[in-house]
Amino acid sequence: MKQKKVLTLGLIFFSVIVLVIGCSENGGNHSDGDLRVEGYILEKEGNRILVAEDITPEKYENIKDKSIPELDKEQVSLIYLGYDNPNKLSIGEEIVAQINNGIDQSYPAQAEAKDIKVKD
User: What domains appear along the chain, each with residue ranges and CATH number?
Assistant: First the structure.
């Protein structure tokens, strides 16, 4: 009987540890200060831009005129970035953005950019 109780408590403890690790927001791999997004601008809308992440120039040419549902079917990672000065950016530019305060995991994902630089 005592062995069964110890085994049950051990299993519960192990389950709680797995749950805590699995549900951590970013797995401890990033702090808010080093979250970056790289990709190509697909749209500009008000004070935000839509970015296709981690794609090649060739892939950008193939997807640039597709809708969000079409891009979802092709499993293209998209993120809306809020930014104070989107007018200095153009559709089709490859950018690197520093993220402020994390990323909302929707589709497309959403975040606020504290800085965006156009890649050369």
Answer: 32-118 (2.40.50.140)
Residue corresponding to tokens 């970035």? 81
Residue 85 token pair: 């000065």
Average confidence (pLDDT) over 94-106: 93
Share above pLDDT 90 across residues of the chain, in percent, rounded to a whole number = 62
* Strand ranges for 11-106 from DSSP E: 36-45, 48-53, 78-82, 94-104
Going by C-alpha positions, the residue among 51, 25, 28 that lies closest to residue 112 is 51
Angstrom distance (rounded) from CA 5 to CA 15: 15
What residues form DSSP beta bridges with 37? 97
Give the integer Cα–Cα distance in Å for 114 and 13: 40
Amino acid of residue 39: G
H/E stretch holding 113: strand 109-118
State the DSSP code for 71: H
Closest CA to 85 of 110, 116, 109, 62: 116
Place of tokens 């000065």: 85
